[in-house]
Specification:
By secondary structure, this protein is mostly beta strands. It is built from two helices and 17 strands. The radius of gyration is 24 Å and the shape is elongated.
C-alpha cells in the first residue's frame, strides 16, 4: 500500500479515535471503582499469545509496552496499526445473572525509523475503561421499596510518543512519553417507583483527568544460533502527579403528570461543587523473556504495579500483579504454495490479581487466549484476530463473578519508505 494512502487512513482513524474515546468498550460493575478496568497495554498481535510484551522484538509489530522494542523495526519500513475490540460477559451473583455486550475503539499507532539506530512510534491507546448499569432495590422503612440505579461511562486514553536507541548490537533502550486525557461520569439515582408523586434524588460525579507520565524500557538480545535468539526485557512506569478535577452535583426533584398527561419535572434542591486536586499515578515494573526461532516464539512476563499508594484518592485499591505466558507458531512464513503455512497461530494464558479489593476480597482474573495473524497475499500487511476467554471476581461476599469473552480485530499495514517501485 502506498504511503499516501496510509496517511489518509491514519488521518481518518485519528479523527474517529479522538471523537469516540468516551464510547463504552466494556460493561462491568467493577468499573465503578478506582479508575475502572485497567486495560492490558498491548495490541491484538500479542494479545493472542497471552499479552506478553517485555521480551517481544518483532520487525513488523509495534510493541509500545516496552519502548526498547521499537529498534527491531526494519530501517526503511513504516508500520500503521489500528484496531477495535468487543466483549460479551455473563455476570452472575449468588441469586441472579445477566449478560452484557460492548464494542469500542481500541488503538491507533504508527512506527517509523529516524536513523538506523533510532526508531520511533506515535499512537493513541487506552489506559482504563468505565461502563456499567446496575439496579438494586432496598426497603429503608420496611414499607416502601426504593429503587437505586448506578450508571457510569468513560475512561482514560493516552497519546504517546516513543523513541528507542541501539546502544550496542544486542542492547536497546527506549522511553515513552504519555499524555493522559479523559472524562468519566458516575450517576446514582434513588426513587420510590410505586409512588408517582414521590421525590427522586440524583448524584452526578464527573472525573476529568489529564497529565503526563513516562515509561522506560530495556531489552538485551542473546544470539543462540543463526536462526534463534533469546531476548530479556524490562520496563518501568514512573510515578507522577496528574491533574484531577472532580465535579459534583446533587439534586432532588419530583415528577408528575399534568392535565394533558405529559410528564413534568420540578427541581426541589440543587447543589454543585467543583474540586481540583492532584492524582499520583503509581509506579510499576514488568519483566520477561521471549525465545524466538524461525517458526516458534515462546515467552512469559511478570508485572507489578503499586496501586495501594492511592488510598487517599480512591478506596478499595491494592497492589496488583499478573503472570502471562504464550507462544506463536508460523509453519513457513515464506511459503508460496500454501496460505495456511504463512498464518501465525497463537496461544496463551494469564493470571492476574486485580488492583481492586472489595469486601476483603482481592479480585482475581484468569483465562486463556487464542489468535491468528492472517497475512495479505502479496505483502507483509496482516489482519490479526485475538480472542480472550476469562473469569473475574467471585459470588462470595456479595460480589459478582464475570465470565467474559473479548475479541480484538486489528490490521497492521506494513510498507517501505523512500523506495520507488520499478516497472518494465
Amino acid at each position: 500500500m502506498r504511503i499516501k494512502w496510509i496517511f489518509i487512513i491514519l488521518s481518518l482513524a485519528l479523527f474517529y479515535s479522538i471523537n469516540s474515546y468516551s464510547q463504552k468498550g466494556i460493561y462491568s460493575p467493577y468499573t465503578r471503582y478506582g479508575l475502572g478496568e485497567i486495560v492490558d497495554q498491548n495490541m491484538g498481535n500479542t494479545m493472542g499469545f497471552g499479552s506478553i510484551t517485555s521480551g517481544i522484538r518483532m520487525n513488523d509489530v509495534i510493541n509500545y509496552s516496552n519502548p526498547a522494542s521499537y529498534t527491531a523495526q526494519d530501517t526503511n519500513s513504516f508500520i500503521f496499526d489500528v484496531g477495535i475490540s468487543a466483549n460479551t460477559s455473563l455476570q452472575r451473583s449468588s441469586d441472579d445473572q445477566i449478560s452484557r455486550r460492548a464494542l469500542g475503539f481500541d488503538h491507533l499507532a504508527i512506527g517509523f525509523p529516524v536513523f538506523r539506530w533510532w526508531k520511533s512510534s506515535i499512537g493513541i491507546v487506552p489506559l482504563s475503561q468505565v461502563g456499567y448499569h446496575v439496579k438494586t432495590t432496598t426497603n429503608p422503612n420496611g414499607i416502601d421499596e426504593m429503587e437505586n440505579r448506578f450508571e457510569g461511562e468513560g475512561g482514560i486514553r493516552q497519546f504517546y510518543i516513543g523513541n528507542a536507541f541501539d546502544l550496542t548490537k544486542n542492547l536497546s533502550v527506549g522511553v515513552n512519553y504519555y499524555y493522559l486525557f479523559g472524562n468519566t461520569t458516575y450517576n446514582s439515582t434513588a426513587a420510590l417507583p410505586e409512588d408517582p408523586y414521590s421525590g427522586l434524588f440524583q448524584k452526578d460525579l464527573n472525573f476529568h483527568l489529564r497529565g503526563s507520565r513516562f515509561q522506560t524500557g530495556l531489552q538485551y538480545e542473546f544470539n543462540l544460533s543463526e536462526n534463534s535468539n533469546l531476548t530479556l526485557g524490562v520496563s518501568h512506569d514512573l510515578s507522577t502527579n496528574l491533574d484531577l478535577e472532580k465535579s459534583y452535583e446533587f439534586f432532588s426533584f419530583y415528577q408528575y403528570n399534568d392535565n394533558q398527561g405529559v410528564t413534568r419535572q420540578d427541581t426541589i434542591d440543587r447543589i454543585q461543587q467543583t474540586k481540583d486536586s492532584k492524582f499520583q499515578y503509581p509506579q510499576g515494573w514488568s519483566g520477561g523473556f521471549a525465545l524466538q526461532g524461525r517458526k516458534l516464539i515462546f515467552g512469559a512476563d511478570f508485572e507489578y504495579q503499586n496501586w495501594s499508594t492511592l488510598e487517599e484518592e480512591f478506596d478499595n485499591l491494592s497492589d496488583s500483579y499478573s503472570l502471562r505466558g504464550g507462544m506463536q507458531y508460523t509453519p513457513d512464513e515464506e511459503a508460496l504454495g500454501s496460505y495456511l503455512q504463512r498464518v501465525d497461530y497463537r496461544l496463551g494464558a494469564f493470571y492476574k490479581q486485580s488492583y481492586l479489593n472489595l469486601n476483603n476480597q482481592q479480585l482475581k482474573d484468569f483465562g486463556i487466549t487464542f489468535g491468528l495473524g492472517l497475512p495479505l497475499r502479496y505483502n507483509r500487511t496482516k489482519f490479526n484476530i485475538a480472542l480472550k476467554l476469562g473469569r473475574r471476581g467471585t459470588t462470595s461476599e456479595n460480589l459478582i463473578e464475570e465470565n467474559y469473552a473479548m475479541i480484538n480485530f486489528n490490521i497492521t499495514f506494513y510498507d517501505f519508505w523512500f523506495i520507488k517501485q520499478k516497472y518494465r
